[in-house]
Write a structure and sequence with these properties.
The chain is an alpha+beta fold. The protein folds into three domains: 188 residues, Hypothetical protein af1432 (Orthogonal Bundle); 136 residues, Beta Polymerase, domain 2, CATH 3.30.460; 93 residues, Roll (Ubiquitin-like (UB roll)). 55% of the residues lie in helices and 11% in strands. It is built from 21 helices and ten strands. The strands form three sheets. It has a five-stranded mixed beta sheet. The structure holds manganese (II) ion (MN).
C-alpha cells in the first residue's frame, strides 16, 4: 500500500475543523509515531502506517476529530510502552475510552463453550460489548487496512482473518448502512477465501469492460439531455459497476449465468430533492421501457438498514438492460457512509460534499464554534448509538437471548429457554445434577423462562446425578433434549 503521512489524513477530513483540532491530531500522531518507533508491519512498512491508514479511513467516511485520534492511537496501549493512562492525561477520558474499547474488542475470547465456539456467538459478543458506536467504527477502519495488507501474512492467518471479516465485520458494516465499507471488506475477504471463484468473477467483470463503459457513457449522455430538456435538475449522473462478491452471490442464484445479471453495471442519478427522484424516474420510464418487476421504491419503503433509493431496470439504447438508481445527495451519502453521514446531516443540515469542497475563506457562524460542534456531535452520537443498539438487537438478537453465569460467562440460548437448558449449555454434569436455579439471586422454578441479560445460577446436588424425565416437556435446546433422552433410554423409559 501507498505510504501516507499525517497530512494525508488531515487533508481528507470531511468535517469542519479548527486549528485546535488539527493541533490535537498532530499531537496524537507524534505520540503514536514515537510509541511505535522501530516497529514494523509484516509487510515491512513502518508500523505507524497502520494507524495512519486507519485514521485515513475514518476521515474519509466523515468522522470527527476524536474518532480519528482514536484511530491514530488505537494500537498504542496494546503494543507499546505508552499506557492508556498517559493517553487519558494528554487527550482526555473520552479519547482514552475509545482507545480502550478498541483494545478490549481485540481481546474478546469466548469462555465456557469448550465444545463449539460459534462465530455466531462472537458476532453477538462483539456487538454487545460495543457500548460506543465509535469503537466499532474504529475497529472497522482498522480491519479494512488489515485486509488491504493481508498479502503479507501466512496463508492460514489470511483465511482465519478473512473468515472473520466475512462473518462479523462485513455484516456489521452493512447493519450500520456503510455500503461502501461492507463491499470493500467482502471483496478483500472473497479473494482469500475462494481464490478460484474470485478469479472467475474478476475475469467475467473485466470482460467486455471497454465496450460496457462506452455504452454507459452513451446512456449517461442521453439521460442528461433528456432530464435537462424536461427541466429536472440533477447534481450528478455517473456509471457504477457491481462489486465482485455481490456479483458472485448473484451469479450463484442464477446458475452462474451472466446473462441473467441485469445490474452488472448501472447508472446513478443524484438529485437534490426527494420529489426530483420521482420526476426523474418518470422521465426515464417515458423514454425507456422498464423491465416488469424490477422497479423498487426504497424511498417509500426503505431497506431495514435504512437504505433509500429508487431502482429500475430499463431496456436502454440498442435494447440492452441497464439498472438505474435514483436518489438524493443525502441518500447517497448515507448509503456510502451510513451512520456517520446520518449524524453529520442531523447536525449540519448540509451535504458531505459541501464540507469537502467548502471554500477555506468561508466564515463559520459563531454558534458553530468547534467546542459547541463537538458537544452537539456527542449528544447526537449518544442518541444515535442508542437507537443503533436498539435496532441491532432486533436484527441480530432476534429469537436469541443472552444469559450470564455468576462469573460473567455468556450463555447464548434460544427464546423461552429454561435454567435446565442453561445448565446443559454450561456442562452436561451441571445439567444432570441440577436441582434448582436462581435468577438474579432469586429462586425460580426449573421451567422458568430466562430473559435477556439475566444472571442464572444453577444449584446442583452431589447425590442427584440424573436428569428428570419431566424436563423433556419444557426444555428448548437440542443439547438438553439429547442428554435427557439418553438417560431415559438407558433407564428403559423410552
Ligand atoms: Mn490495528
Amino acid at each position: 500500500m501507498k505510504e501516507i503521512s499525517i497530512d494525508d489524513v488531515i487533508k481528507n477530513i470531511r468535517l469542519k475543523t479548527t486549528p485546535a483540532g488539527i493541533k490535537l491530531i498532530r499531537e496524537a500522531y507524534n505520540l503514536a509515531q514515537k510509541a511505535h518507533d522501530g516497529q514494523k508491519r509484516k509487510s515491512g512498512e513502518d508500523y505507524i502506517q497502520h494507524p495512519l491508514h486507519t485514521a485515513l479511513n475514518l476521515a474519509k467516511i466523515g468522522l470527527g476529530i476524536k474518532t480519528i485520534i482514536g484511530g491514530i492511537l488505537h494500537d498504542v496501549p496494546e503494543d507499546t510502552q505508552v499506557s492508556l493512562k498517559e493517553i487519558e492525561e494528554k487527550f482526555g477520558s473520552e479519547i482514552s475510552s475509545l482507545v480502550d474499547g478498541v483494545t478490549k474488542l481485540g481481546r474478546i475470547r469466548l469462555r465456557g463453550s469448550q465444545e463449539e465456539i460459534h462465530l455466531e456467538n462472537l458476532r453477538k459478543m462483539f456487538l454487545a460489548m460495543a457500548e460506543d458506536i465509535r469503537v466499532v467504527l474504529i475497529k472497522l477502519a482498522d480491519r479494512l487496512h488489515n485486509m488491504e495488507t493481508l498479502d503479507a501474512v501466512p496463508k492460514e492467518k489470511q483465511e482465519r482473518i478473512s473468515q472473520e471479516t466475512m462473518e462479523i465485520f462485513a455484516p456489521i458494516a452493512n447493519r450500520l448502512g456503510m455500503g461502501e465499507v461492507k463491499c470493500q471488506l467482502e471483496d478483500l475477504a472473497f479473494k482469500y477465501l475462494d481464490e478460484k471463484n474470485y478469479a472467475y468473477v474478476l475475469k467475467i467483470s473485466q470482460e467486455e469492460q471497454e465496450e460496457r463503459k462506452q455504452y454507459i457513457d452513451e446512456m449517461i449522455a442521453e439521460l442528461k439531455k433528456k432530464l435537462e430538456k424536461e427541466g429536472i435538475k440533477t447534481l450528478e449522473i455517473y456509471g457504477r459497476s457491481k462489486h465482485l462478491f455481490s456479483l458472485f452471490q448473484k451469479l450463484q442464484k442464477h446458475d452462474m449465468d451472466i446473462s441473467k445479471i441485469y445490474d452488472l453495471a448501472g447508472i446513478r442519478i443524484i438529485v437534490s430533492e426527494v420529489v426530483n427522484c420521482y420526476e426523474a424516474l418518470g422521465v426515464v420510464h417515458k423514454k425507456y421501457r422498464p423491465l416488469v418487476g424490477r422497479i423498487k421504491d426504497y424511498i417509500s419503503l426503505p431497506k431495514p438498514n435504512g437504505y433509500q433509493s429508487i431502482h429500475t431496470t430499463i431496456f436502454g439504447e440498442k435494447g440492452k438492460f441497464l439498472e438505474i438508481q435514483i436518489r438524493t445527495q443525502k441518500m447517497n451519502d448515507e448509503a456510502e457512509f451510513g451512520i456517520a453521514a446520518h449524524w453529520i446531516y442531523s447536525q449540519q443540515k448540509r451535504s458531505l460534499r459541501d464540507f469537502f469542497f467548502r471554500k477555506p475563506t468561508q466564515v463559520l457562524p459563531k454558534e458553530l464554534s468547534w467546542t459547541k460542534q463537538l458537544r452537539d456531535w456527542q449528544k447526537e452520537l449518544g442518541k444515535n448509538s442508542k437507537e443503533f443498539m436498539e435496532s441491532l438487537k432486533i436484527d441480530f438478537f432476534k429469537n436469541r437471548i443472552f444469559a450470564f453465569t455468576p462469573k460473567g460467562d455468556i450463555i447464548d440460548l434460544p427464546e423461552e429457554a429454561t435454567p435446565i437448558d442453561f445448565a446443559y449449555k454450561v456442562h452436561s454434569e451441571i445439567g444432570n445434577r441440577a436441582i434448582g436455579a436462581k435468577v438474579d439471586k432469586k429462586i425460580v422454578p426449573l421451567n422458568y423462562k430466562i430473559k435477556n441479560g439475566e444472571v442464572v445460577e444453577i444449584i446442583t446436588s452431589r447425590e442427584h446425578k440424573n436428569p428428570s424425565r419431566d424436563w423433556i416437556r419444557f426444555v428448548r435446546t437440542s443439547e438438553a433434549k439429547s442428554h435427557i433422552r439418553k438417560f431415559m433410554k438407558r433407564e428403559g423409559m423410552i
